[in-house]
Write a structure and sequence with these properties.
mainly beta; 49% strand; 1 helix; 26 strands; 2% helix; single chain
């Protein structure tokens, strides 16, 4: 594959003055990201990620922070990260090389307080959370809006944003979930906290992950719709589609049908999870 190359000139302040770093970046590719892997440099200040494409080639993100971890859209074409060179939260579409900035230039203290990133299931919306509010961007238009008082976003749809308010001291270990409408008004989702909750692709259901059992609840009313055994999952990664969730078992990923309680092995993804490893596009 041949990438169009652009030269990124990055000025980094050093003790002796200013160091000019030139980095060759692949600009665009139609290949989806299968997974991202943090660079291993054995240093607390380590940065950078390698994005493994479906072709087996590697797409580098040399200035992406390792904390917070990057996020990759479900279709594998977009990635969001904290760019340490520009000191901004950046989202990037690998298909055409489009960059979008979700944040203004950040101070060192502001960068430390950046929380997790999340995409909507269709990749059209992307969000990040800070200490006391969240910012959501429409990737198509580049328009960004701030949701005050929501310090963690974990689900996005065209109609609602699901998040957690008041994450500071005294908020408690299990924090209640609220849903925010487009006009900024919101409501409490009854009976739910933010412990192990995943939004379905249709935006109608939430999967509440437990140790022995998992529950499917209505994303607006909190009403329980189904309950199923965890089935030996070490970790429920995400929804694959409207009927299956991705389950990590000891030697493979499994797609679990939540209605039929059947499973199938998912191929093409390393049997890994944890810090420094982020899934992208998964066979559906």
């Amino acid at each position: 594959m041949r990438y169009r190359i652009r030269v990124a000139a990055v000025l980094l302040a050093t003790a002796g003055g200013v160091l000019l770093l030139l980095a060759l970046w692949p600009r665009s590719t139609g290949q989806p990201i299968v997974y991202g892997e943090a660079s291993d440099c054995g240093d607390a200040a380590c940065h950078g990620w390698s994005l493994r494409l479906a072709s087996g080639e590697v797409y580098p993100l040399p200035y992406a922070a390792q904390e917070p971890e990057i996020a990759i859209s479900d279709d594998g074409h977009r990635v969001v990260y904290l760019d340490l060179a520009d000191r901004r939260v950046m989202a990037r579409d690998l298909r055409d090389g489009t960059f979008r900035s979700l944040s203004p230039e950040l101070t060192a203290d502001q960068a430390v307080n950046i929380g997790g990133f999340v995409f909507s299931h269709d990749g059209g919306l992307v969000a990040y959370s800070a200490q006391s509010d969240s910012r959501i961007m429409d990737f198509g238009t580049g328009k960004v809006r701030t949701i005050a008082g929501i310090c963690q976003v974990f689900g996005l749809s065209k109609d609602l944003i699901w998040g957690v308010p008041r994450c500071g001291p005294g908020s408690g270990e299990n924090r209640r979930i609220v849903a925010i409408r487009a006009d900024g008004s919101g409501f409490l989702v009854p009976g739910l906290d933010d412990e192990g909750v995943l939004l379905s692709p249709d935006g109608r259901r939430l999967l509440r992950v437990g140790i022995d059992y998992n529950e499917i609840v209505d994303a607006v009313t909190g009403k329980r719709l189904a309950r199923m055994k965890s089935g030996g999952c070490e970790r429920v990664e995400r929804w694959l589609n409207d009927r299956e969730v991705l389950c990590k078992r000891s030697k493979s990923y499994q797609a679990i049908d939540i209605a039929r309680a059947t499973s199938r092995t998912v191929t093409g993804v390393p049997a890994r999870w944890g810090t420094g490893f982020v899934l992208g596009r998964v066979e559906r």
